[in-house]
Amino acid sequence: xxTTRESAKEESQKExxxxxxxxxxxxxxxxxxxxxxxxxxxxxxxxxxxxxxxxRRNRFATEIHxxxxxxxxxxxxxxxxxxxxxxxxxxxxxxxxxDDDEAVLEECLRGEKASLKEYEKxxxxxxxxxxxxxxxxxxxxxxRTTVSEIQRLEDLAD
Length: 158
Prior knowledge:
The protein contains five helices and no strands. By secondary structure, it is an all-alpha fold.
């Protein structure tokens, strides 16, 4: 029979793994989303920006994947069904929008703001190791930078 301390430690480990799995899934979704909207973009500068973001999200996923392995967990290998629906919605929206680049930027901003909230929530509620916490905080800061860049690009598009 497990002691209360052992049970709490096991539960904390499960929570860390679950939180990382969710962030991994979100990063898979974000990478796919950026690649999808890349197809919709007109501007070469925007296409370059979107490709950079897809690569960044791939790096985030790789880092989280390694953190999960360090916890002896089997990382998820794909994103969520919800994200597939969102990408379909982006397709429909850009079909009916005159300025595809502006629609693309709006969707990117919406996605990045959702990522910000998700990272902040996980960092606040989950007791990660110092190394994992530092990695996630660095990723969070990069997402904040991306939000600022998207807002700047939207201003230029207006």
